[in-house]
Amino acid sequence: MRRKALPLLCAGLACGLWLCACAGNNGRPQPPEPANIQVFRLADNQPEGYPTVVGNRKFAELVQERTNGEIIIEVFPDAQLGDEITVVDLMRFGAVDFARVSSNTMATFSPSINALSLPYLYRDKEHMFNVLDGPVGDQVLESMRHLNLLGLCWYDSGARSFYSVTEITSPDDMKGLNIRVQETQMMMDLIRYLGGTPVPTVFSEVYTAMKTGVIDGAENNFPSYVTASHNEIAKFFIVDEHIRSPEMILVNTRVFDSLSEQQRRIIREAALEAAQVQRQEWARQEADYERQAIASGVKITRLTPEQRQAFVDAVAPVRDDYEEYADMVRQILETP
Ligand code: GCU
User: What CA–CA distance (Å, rounded) separates 7 from 28?
Assistant: First the structure.
């Protein structure tokens, strides 16, 4: 059995629960042998109740149920195991087993993933999921084995838009502003093309950076904007939807490959089912958080087609700079 101290305790607890549930009920499956119980950790930087964490909990529940209690996945939300980059580093060396991470974060480790987050790439959410649930998405999930990582499924993360302490309605308004980005080269390039200064910052530090004036704005989806309280400071939200950066559940390949064929199948299927739950939860919460943003006094601007076009034109060179992904971009654009 892996990880002796904590797992032993969990194994004891799980066994106890099973014994209670199965006592005197011969038709039921038998509790797992303690020696067969494995306990894994899944990291997420979002708080309890956030759509990704709801999806993760569903994933853990399905896996535990279908492996007859032999695989227990403990979910650690709120960046308890570290920020995303740290968690991915830990995962590569087996110190964390599973994680839910943003594809932009993964692009810093495996640059071809940038192709998924090129600006104004998808026609809409349906187009994005046709891509992710098809050959391109599968290829990306399998493309991280050189990092000892395997992607299991795709979560929704909506579209990312800008928000700031002063009003922005055009790329011109961004001149001279410090805009926080995730730590990827492509996002830095995107901000430069818009005339702003990119400031790569860990997600959990964005609030303080904004509060202390180190940054003037950032970009994200409504649920992240509100749950991280960025709406308290950046009172202008502009729905420009410059990128979609989907999220995934990752597993360390040494963990995954050490499991039985049946357990691996259960994990893959559970991840796909959990992703469906996450996507529904996302749709529900996204609208809810937009309402909360409005209620908190934020000015939300929906761009006119002309205003939006100014952003599309300004960031168009990003696609040329990443010409090496032309083939993947073509596959994405050809996906219905
Ligand atoms: C989203 C995403 C996080 C990510 C964050 C960021 O909120 O869910 O995983 O860390 O964006 O902007 O860094």
Answer: 24
Atom number in ligand 1 closest to CA 203: 13
The length of the chain is 336
Topology (CATH) of 38-157+245-287: D-Maltodextrin-Binding Protein; domain 2 (3.40.190)
What tens digit of pLDDT does each residue of 155-188 get?
999 999 999 999 999 999 999 999 999 999 999 9
Rounded Cα–Cα distance for residues 58 and 291 (Å): 26
- Average pLDDT for residues 272-286, to the nearest whole number? 98
Ligand 1 pocket mutation pick from 42, 44, 46 by most atoms within 8 angstroms of CB: 46
**Span 159-244+293-334 CATH architecture:** 3-Layer(aba) Sandwich (3.40)
Identify the CA nearest to 201 among candidates 217, 189, 223: 217
Residue nearest to atom 13 of ligand 1 (CA): 203
DSSP 270-289: HHHHHHHHHHHHHHHHHHHH
Q: Do domains 38-157+245-287 and 159-244+293-334 have the same CATH topology?
A: yes
